[in-house]
Amino acid sequence: MYGGIVSKSHSSVYGRWNQNKKKIVVDFHTNSTVKGHYVAGGRILILPITGDGQITMKLKNVAIKFTMDYDTEKDGEGKTHIVPKKYHFDFEVKDGAHFTLTNLFNGNKQLSDAMHTFLNDNWKQISTEFGRPIMASTADSIYKNIIIFFQKMAIDDISISS
């Protein structure tokens, strides 16, 4: 996929912050719709696929675990800030996925319908094998925003409620 937008709904977030190990773990569950441009040529699992068009993926109950290691440093005012070092994420689409791709097989409706049936019947395996690049792009964006947040917020200024 070259580019697109992600929308989320019905999210829940749970986080753990271990200051001794300098590790933050965030678990969240969300429904998500991903829209963008795709180019396909080759095989998807066992079937050949070709196309160049728009894709919409509706994902139900995506469970994401985002783990970040960090260091700390003091700013010019002596306040301690978190400095993210690296992150890792895992994900699983738990309750279903629906895929819609335009212009599959250069608009051949019969082949396109068969591919859509295959993709949507095998949503779990498709999501597992091909979802990581999409999720990685989202995780990169989240990580960049986390870096900006911690540059601006000292640890003592962060309030966490349970």
TrEMBL record:
<dbReference type="InterPro" id="IPR010562">
    <property type="entry name" value="Haemolymph_juvenile_hormone-bd"/>
</dbReference>
<dbReference type="GO" id="GO:0005615">
    <property type="term" value="C:extracellular space"/>
</dbReference>
<dbReference type="InterPro" id="IPR038606">
    <property type="entry name" value="To_sf"/>
</dbReference>
<dbReference type="Pfam" id="PF06585">
    <property type="entry name" value="JHBP"/>
</dbReference>
<protein>
    <submittedName>
        <fullName>Uncharacterized protein</fullName>
    </submittedName>
</protein>
